Amino acid sequence: MAIGYAIAGIICCILIIAIPFGIASFRIANYALWPFGRTIVRRADAGAASALGNVIWVIVAGVWLAIGHVFTGVLLCLTIVGIPLGVANFKMVPISLVPLGREIVSIGGRYPT
Description:
Blueprint: H1 2-14, H2 19-33, E1 38-42, H3 48-76, H4 83-91, H5 93-97, E2 102-106
Antiparallel strand pairs: 1-2
Helix pairs in contact: 1-2, 3-4
């Protein structure tokens, strides 16, 4: 999933008008590589532009990404070893739906953001 987000970020950055979506894709790719010890919080300075961008994101890609994370999470939870990764996939559903105006922060300062 992280590779897919990174490729989408590169494509979005090539299309100049989609750079905010590319930056969000790179953030999600980083979070997909290591979601443990980190969480998602709403940014206080996010405004109407983030809301409009999130509407566009949900229509274009957000729903499909969320379905992908739920499906992958269910498949991973079928095995004992995959349960932590399945839970991590379920944890990624909110940021895959609406990534703009969100920030990924460390829980307890143990892992870098």
